[in-house]
Each structure stands twice: as C-alpha cells, then as structure tokens.
Amino acid sequence: MRFKLDENLDVRAEAPLAAAGHDVATVVGQDLGGAVDPVVAEAVRAEERILVTLDRGFADLRAYPPGSHPGIVVLRLHRQGLTSVTAALELLAGYEGLAEIGGCTVIVSDTSVRVRRAEP
After folding, report:
1. Chain-wide mean pLDDT for the chain?
2. At 73, phi and psi to the nearest 5?
3. pLDDT of res. 31
4. Which residues contact 50 (CB under 8 A, 6 or more apart)?
5. Terminal-to-terminal C-alpha distance of the chain
6. Structural contact between residues 43 and 63, judged by C-beta atoms closer than 8 angstroms
7. If you average pLDDT over residues 43-61, what whole number do you get?
8. Of 2, 72, 88, 112, which has the fewest beta carbons less than 10 angstroms from its beta carbon?
9. Domain CATH number, residue 41
10. Which helix (H) or strand (E) holds 55?
11. What percent of the chain has pLDDT over 70?
C-alpha cells in the first residue's frame, strides 16, 4: 500500500509501515509543510496515497467523506510522541483488514482500529 505521513508526524514514524513492505512518503518530503488541509488532501488524492495524520480535521466525514479520497488514517492517541505513534502504526500495519482500507476513513487509537467505509 502507499501511505503519506502528514507533517505533524515525525518522519521516523514511517518505520513500522515501511518494515511491513509499504511505500511511505511524507508531506514534508514533498515540500508541503505548512500547506492547508485541502492542498494536502489533493496531493494524496493525486498520488493515490493513504494519508496518515494526527489532524482530527481529516476525520470530519462531511469534509472528507469515505469514498472521496484514497484513504485517511487519523491517529487518536492519548500521547502523540514517537513511541505512541510508532505503536499505533504497528497496530495499523498488523490490522487484518488493512488491504481493504482504501477509500475509507480509519481511526486508530492506542488499542483499536475503526474503519468507516463509503455508503453503498
């Protein structure tokens, strides 16, 4: 799968996804640091990458409904340091339904993965 880490994530957080064989890029690596959410959303749409972010604005289903994007993963963690983010991405990488999250809005907490799919 193809992922893009938002600027609010330490670039070292790509390790669990990369170790699982996924293609991981970063918003910062694309010189989009400081870009507004719609610009970031358009970049991931154009690249067909799943955005991974701490920005809860991307979990707004009215603004980013499932099926209107390649996929959005929002991390909702008690702590947002590298250790917590890495653990959450390890949880995501090991999620049994990972291959089917394209186009979905996914919320990853400290202990669970919830998937919101497009309305049929």
Report:
1. 95
2. -115, 115
3. 85
4. 1, 2, 3, 4, 44, 70, 71, 72, 73, 101, 102
5. 23
6. no
7. 96
8. 112
9. 3.40.50
10. none
11. 100
Tokens of 25: 């890029």
Task: Please say whether the beta carbons of 110 and 78 come within 8 A.
Answer: yes
At which residue do the structure tokens 């653990």 appear? 87
DSSP H/E element including 92: helix 82-93
Look up residue 10 and give its two tokens: 């330490």
Looking at the structure of the chain, the number of domains it has is 1
Enclosing domain of residue 85: 2-116
Exposed/middle/buried for residue 55 (C-beta within 10 Å: 0-12, 13-18, 19+): middle
- Name the token pair of 70: 């390649």
Joined together, the tokens standing for residue 44 give 């991931």
Tokens representing residue 79 in the block:
């702590």
